[in-house]
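Dear U.,

Please find below the material for section 3 of the report. The protein was modelled together with zinc ion; I have listed the sequence and SMILES used, followed by the predicted complex structure.
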Amino acid sequence: MEKTPKSRAMLHAKCPRCRRGKMFEGGMYSFSSNRINIHCPDCRMIFEIEPGYFYAAMYVSYALNIMEGGMICYLTYLITGNSDSPWLYTSAILFGLFALSPVNFRYSRVFLLYWLSPKVHYHPELDKPAIVTESREAVTNLKTTT
Ligand SMILES: [Zn+2]
């Protein structure tokens, strides 16, 4: 049985326990539907471990913003060569961080659950295709309803 690598599961924002179920519903840049699922669609793990757990993701998001702001400043300097105008750097940081906010929203929660939650562990026995069990359930549901 092939196991899902942690880096790939994190990149695709999959559940930290089974590495199969999606943590988020909707696309990263769809503002109407970019929200975290209550529980994993595969292994039923509840993502918000305790009430208000994702307040801690704000600190992760803050750290991400600081790093990204630094990188945006460096890129602005490389591209323009300007070292005089503070407004150039201020507007570049504001625009860049606004554009990256859906990324930060998503990956701050991913980093929190994968790296900063000691109670959350990977369960390799849950890391298997869900299609087989779902189709079996669908077949048994069909049999019971008809
Ligand atoms: Zn899961």
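For the text of the report, you could mention the following: Residues 15, 17-18, 20-21, 40, 42-43, 45 surround zinc ion (CB under 6 Å).

Regards,
Y.
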